[in-house]
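Quick one: Acetyl transferase from Thiomicrospira aerophila AL3, structure tokens please.
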Amino acid sequence: MAKKSILLVGAGGHCKASIDVIEQIGEWQIAGIIDRQDSGVKTVLGYPVIGCDEDLPELRKQYDYALVTIGQIRLSEPRVRLFEQLKTLGYKQPGLVSPLAYVSQHAIIGAGTVVMHQALVNAGAQIGQNGIINSQALIEHDVVIGDDCHIATGAKINGDVKIGRGCFIGSGVVIKQGVELADNVMVGAGALILNNITRSGCYVNQGRLLETK
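--- reply ---
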């Protein structure tokens, strides 16, 4: 079966991690990388930078598939902007799962979401579009994660947790079963979340509200 060509939009560290997932899947041909015009980046892991955001309309004539490959720490807006731009241009944005991850056949992964190496997504979980489930993250049964979220490395999201859209859950975070988080919440690395977080746009570290946007 011929491989499908895909553009990667963003040339930083998350792009490298995404390339590794795509190579392991083996079903895609990376056509090239899209980055800022002034970035100075020429190649990423041997794949050429072939244009900038302004070239995406013209490149759509050649390519059907694209994936947002900029990372997300704190704010989700840059990924949201690119995801919506690609959607408006008519690109298909596949959900991708590393063959080294486990995703239950009873889970749902949204468009443009990438599940990284050794992540585990259990039965009944629902993960929205344009997300990152990073390496060794655990998404337990019946968890609902909104669009545009990044669940960072080694985070543990226990059963029946509900996470709003645009959230960042830092490395090693543990969220107790049944807890609910509002939209655009940022949880610092290593935090233990035992109670609901109802204030949208806040920053929580070690269970303490530190600031709001």
